[in-house]
């Protein structure tokens, strides 16, 4: 057996993802996590792939652990976890992700390429919140108004 560093294992995992070998990528990420059990970047990457593979329980566990260790971001972990949840729980994750995206957007300024990417992510997350009020939370007393508010906010997010 060849010994890899954490960085080497992550590189192998990323290469496996590039070749659409997601199960192999997960194995590399898990080996890296065995070596650095609190590395939230690895947890976030593995959680996203586990979600893509439909391994939702494992993905939730991985993303929740990452959130516990690093609650201030990045936003993607919250947005990925929200997609695996329903109703108010999903909405709470989306809202936290949106807060983080808004904070980052204010820090990077309006003209950077990062701002354009953040605007796209923000708009997508706001639309997902609107969708929750059209489905899971459609019976809430203010569902229509909430949906409209999220959609207006999504449209208002403009790229530089």
Give the helix/strand class: mainly alpha
Global morphology? globular
**Alpha-carbon Rg, integer:** 17 Å
- Supply the number of structural domains: 2
Average pLDDT confidence is 94
Summarize the amount of helix as a percent range.
over 70%
Number of strands: 0
| SSE series | HHHHHHHH
List low-confidence stretches.
Answer: none
TPR repeats: 40-73
Pfam families: TPR_19 (PF14559)
Keywords: TPR repeat
Structure description:
By secondary structure, the chain is an all-alpha fold. Helix content is 76%, strand content 0%. The protein is built from 8 helices and no strands. The protein has helices at residues 6-18, 22-35, 40-52, 56-69, 75-83, 87-108, 113-134, 143-156. Helix 3 (40-52) packs parallel to helix 5 (75-83) and helix 7 (113-134) packs antiparallel against helix 8 (143-156).
Task: Provide a concise account of the structure shown.
With 160 residues, the protein is an all-alpha fold. 76% of the residues lie in helices and 0% in strands. It has 2 domains: 1-71, Serine Threonine Protein Phosphatase 5, Tetratricopeptide repeat (Alpha Horseshoe); 74-160, no CATH class.
Keywords:
TPR repeat, Serine Threonine Protein Phosphatase 5, Tetratricopeptide repeat, 2 domains, mainly alpha, 160 residues, 0% strand, TPR_rpt, TPR-like_helical_dom_sf
Topology, pairings included?
Blueprint: H1 6-18, H2 22-35, H3 40-52, H4 56-69, H5 75-83, H6 87-108, H7 113-134, H8 143-156
């Amino acid at each position: 057996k060849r010994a890899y560093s954490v960085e080497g294992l992550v590189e192998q995992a990323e290469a496996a993802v590039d070749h659409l070998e997601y199960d192999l990528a997960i194995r590399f990420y898990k080996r890296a996590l065995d070596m650095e059990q609190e590395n939230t970047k690895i947890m976030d990457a593995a959680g996203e792939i586990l979600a893509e593979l439909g391994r939702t329980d494992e993905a939730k566990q991985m993303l929740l652990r990452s959130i516990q260790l690093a609650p201030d971001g990045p936003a993607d972990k919250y947005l990925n976890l929200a997609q695996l949840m329903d109703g108010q729980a999903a909405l709470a994750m989306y809202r936290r992700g949106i807060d983080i995206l808004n904070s980052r957007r204010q820090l990077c300024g309006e003209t950077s390429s990062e701002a354009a990417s953040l605007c796209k992510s923000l708009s997508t997350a706001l639309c997902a919140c609107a969708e929750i009020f059209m489905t899971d939370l459609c019976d809430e007393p203010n569902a229509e108004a909430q949906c409209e508010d999220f959609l207006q906010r999504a449209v208002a997010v403009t790229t530089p």
